[in-house]
Amino acid sequence: MWDSESTTVQEIDDIGKKPQTHPSTEKIWGKKLAQRLKKKREATILKHHETSAHLHDILLPYRDRNY
C-alpha cells in the first residue's frame, strides 16, 4: 500500500511513466535521424536521375522518327 504521509500525488502519477531523456540527447538523436533521412533522400534523387538518363539514352534513337 501507499504511505500517504510520504508519497505525493505527483510521485504516484510519475510511477509507470517512462523516464525523461535529457534534451541534449534528444537533439543528438534528432540530428542523426535527420542526417540519415537526408542521405536516403539524396540517394533516391540520384537513383531517379540515373534511371531517367538511362531511359533517355535508350529512347534517343527513336526520338526523331515519325510514326
Commentary on this structure:
Residues 1-25 are annotated as: Disordered. Residues 1-10 have a biased composition (Polar residues). By secondary structure, this protein is mainly α. It has a domain at 36-67. The chain has helices at 9-14, 23-59. The protein starts with 8 loop residues before the first helix and ends in an 8-residue tail after the last helix.
Short description:
The protein is mainly α and about 70 residues long.
N-to-C order of helices and strands: HH
In terms of DSSP E residues, the strand content is under 5%
> Terminal Cα separation, in Å?
87 Å
Which shape, going by the Cα principal axes?
Answer: rod-shaped
Relevant terms:
single chain; rod-shaped; mainly alpha; 67 residues
Q: Helices and strands in order, then pairings?
A:
Blueprint: H1 9-14, H2 23-59
